[in-house]
Amino acid sequence: MAEQAQFEELARQLSAVGAVKRDLARILPHECPAGSAAVLTLLGRYGSMRMSKLAELLAVDMSVTSRHVAHVAERGWIERSPDPADKRSRILHLTPAGEATLRDLSRRSTELLTERLGDWSDEEVDQLIRLMTRLRDSFGDCRTVPVRPTATGPAEPVPGSPKAVATATVASAARAPTIAPVLESTTRTPA
């Protein structure tokens, strides 16, 4: 098992991933902020869905999801149609314009990663993908947190547990969703 100093260095390195995410966010077109890119990415990856499922995948509340959805709908990137199973709900679908925007986002992020990692070998990139996938899997679905009952009130997350730390990270990331490749590597498959 790794030593304490290794985990401390890992924590420092993981915090530096923010710089990568910021660079990826800088390449987004002005009319497509990170939240909009996240909506398009999730619809592109998982297909049509209800807004409640989208909010769950984004790990943000419904009001934030509604703002992101309104933004992409105003640009014609998605359609909202009645859910045949529940007429009060709407199903979100990518439009051809949304698919084109998603392809542009993917192209932009791929070009940036190609530029920045141009001196990496294919094996090194594959290794990074494997290790990041394994790291993500080690944390499980970070939208749920183990709780412990308290004598004085509601249950609270177990401090310092991997799930509590990961949940804090996800909450922070949810305020600034990332674009296609980064989001695809961190989003869980819907239940």
Structure description:
With 191 residues, the chain is mostly helical. Helices cover 60% and strands 11% of the residues. It contains 9 helices and 5 strands. The strands form 2 sheets. A 3-stranded antiparallel β-sheet has the order 1-3-2. Helix 3 crosses helix 5 and helix 4 packs across helix 5. The longest helix is centred in the middle third of the chain and has 21 residues. It is globular and about 55 Å long. The relative contact order is 0.15. The C terminus is likely disordered.
Keywords:
191 residues, mainly alpha, three-stranded antiparallel β-sheet
What is the number of helices?
9
Beta-strand content: 5-15%
Helix vs. strand class:
mainly alpha
Q: Looking at the chains present, what oligomeric state does this protein adopt?
A: single chain
The number of distinct β-strands equals: 5
* Average residue pLDDT: 81
> Are there runs of 5+ residues with pLDDT below 50, and where?
158-191
Strand order of the largest sheet: 1-3-2
CA-based shape? globular
Written as H for each helix and E for each strand, in order along the chain, the element string is HHHEHHEEHHEEHH
Sheet bearing the most strands, described? Answer: 3 strands, antiparallel
Q: For the record, give the distance between the C-alpha atoms at the N and C termini, rounded to a whole number.
A: 32 Å
Q: What's the helical proportion of residues?
A: 55-70%
- Rg measurement, Å: 18 Å
